[in-house]
Amino acid sequence: MMSNEQLRDEVMTLFLAGHETTANTLSWTFYLLTQHPEAESKLMRELEQVLNGQAPSFRHFPQLVYTQSIVKEAMRLYPPVWLISREPLEDVQLEQYVLPAGCEIALSQWVMHRHPDYFPEPRSFIPDRWTPEFEEALPAYVYFPFGAGPRMCIGNNFAMLEATLLLAGVLQQYRIVYDSAKPVAPEPSITLRPKPGVPVRVVRRRE
Ligand code: HEM
What we know:
Elements: H1 4-35, H2 37-51, H3 65-77, E1 84-86, E2 92-94, E3 97-99, E4 105-107, H4 109-113, H5 132-137, H6 156-173, E5 174-178, E6 185-188, E7 192-195, E8 200-204
Antiparallel strand pairs: 1-4, 2-3, 5-8, 6-7
The structure holds protoporphyrin IX containing FE.
Keywords: Heme, Iron, Metal-binding, Monooxygenase, Oxidoreductase
Binding site for heme: 153
Cofactor: heme
């Protein structure tokens, strides 16, 4: 049986790992959509076609292809976890470098996700880049918003589902309008937060 302390730790992990990351993903996604009306229009067309006025649910998920691409592209540009680390168990020779056992190796999603060798026009928001062919051709560990290997995020699939359906559900009913003259800046804390938040107006689409 778990001790109270273990239970507290588990709940903290789920709150921090599960809530903060998905919340940031959605904040960045809404922000990016306010800056890219053409992507928002395309998303709205997909929502009309796939949902046909119904509330989004689990069964719509596979068909919400463009909506998923938007979430992937938002996590590419603004990875909610922008840095993870690993410690080698033994010395590792990596080309001309030796990584001694026990040293800390920082791996940055921010750096890799904006690498021009892998992502043409790396700073542009292009959800259409996420075709099946593009994903297939992407080398392993280049795009890793959920980490990789045995300690990869356990909430990976759930988070994609949650973020996609929430995005669809909110935008189906509301228009999000950016309400500030200043752009949002990334604040690299443990997660990558939008600073100073994303000031928006929320407008109901129809009564
Ligand atoms: C967009 C949302 C999310 C992102 C970007 C994200 C990202 C990550 C990353 C980068 C890691 C570290 C992986 C590694 O070191 O290779 C991680 C670990 C973890 N995540 Fe997530 N996560 C998200 C959502 C969630 C959700 C919804 C849950 C649970 C409901 C969750 C639970 C966990 C747990 C428990 C770990 C630790 C796994 C381990 O150490 O074995 N995450 N996550």
